[in-house]
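[Automated response] Your request has been received and processed.

Submitted sequence:
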Amino acid sequence: MTGLEAFYRELIIRGVAVFAVMLALSLLCAFVFARQMTKPITRLADSAGRMANLEEVPPPLEQKDELGTLARDVYSMYVKLKETITKLEDEILRERELEESQRYFFSAASHELKTPIAAASVLLEGMLENVGDYKDHPKYLRECVKMMDALSKMISEILEIVSLNDGRIIPAFEKLDIRHTVADILPDFQTLSEANGQRIVTDIPDGQSCLADPQMLQKALSNVILNAVQNTPVDGEIRIWSEPAANKYRLCVLNTGARIDDTILPKLFDPFYRVDKARSRKSGRSGLGLTLVRKTLEAMNIDFTLENTPDGVLFWMNLPKV
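Generated structure:
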């Protein structure tokens, strides 16, 4: 072998070696590059799979390229989807609770309506047959009229509660003077309270104004004050006052000398719930007064509470300041 041939052979071997090294380096670089390229895609695919199963997924890593933008967009869509699903679940739960509440309400209403209807039917049949005392038609006709009046009032209250539940009654908010609002409805209860030897004492400063629907607020207050008069002991005192709070005026109604079992307090706002059913029916109470109060104040987004205090049972509501 000549020196020239040996030189070419050595040159070819070195060239092949250099090519092999370059090929290896290229393959290694391609592998690393492909790994770097596929890693975020794999991570995105894994996150997308977990998102599809609504599993918790951490926010994507900061990456300033097209894949980073895609990952952020997918994560943002996932967050919005979860929020939408949560809202839908809450709405479904609320609808179920509303359906259950309506089912209970109409079941209780049908039961309550049956009693006066059945009683009136008995009286009318007795008068038609001229049986015993029922021969005194004027007396028992007056009883029937009284029952029908109570029935009419109950049906009106039921329809109002249904309208409040369905959102068909929309509050028309106005600026109201709290002292004047209370003073306007107090005469309706003076006769009843004086017959019981009760005193209604008010302490509401001038200049306190709130934002509320005048008719709805008066109706809620009327039911609260009537409830206080009916449940305050003879010769007791009903105190009505207001005090400033954060961006609100707290209007309070206290019937002194009264107390309600703490386990019963939350039930008083349920439809047709009465502590003393026999006494309540005799006094013409429908059992819907505090239910109307709750529905009316909830429609106006007014916070309220009924609670026991050392002086008696206190009802308060937070009226928004103007």
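Summary generated for your ticket: The radius of gyration is 38 Å. The helical segments are 3-52, 66-129, 137-166, 178-185, 187-195, 214-231, 277-282, 289-299.
If you did not submit this request, please reply to this message.
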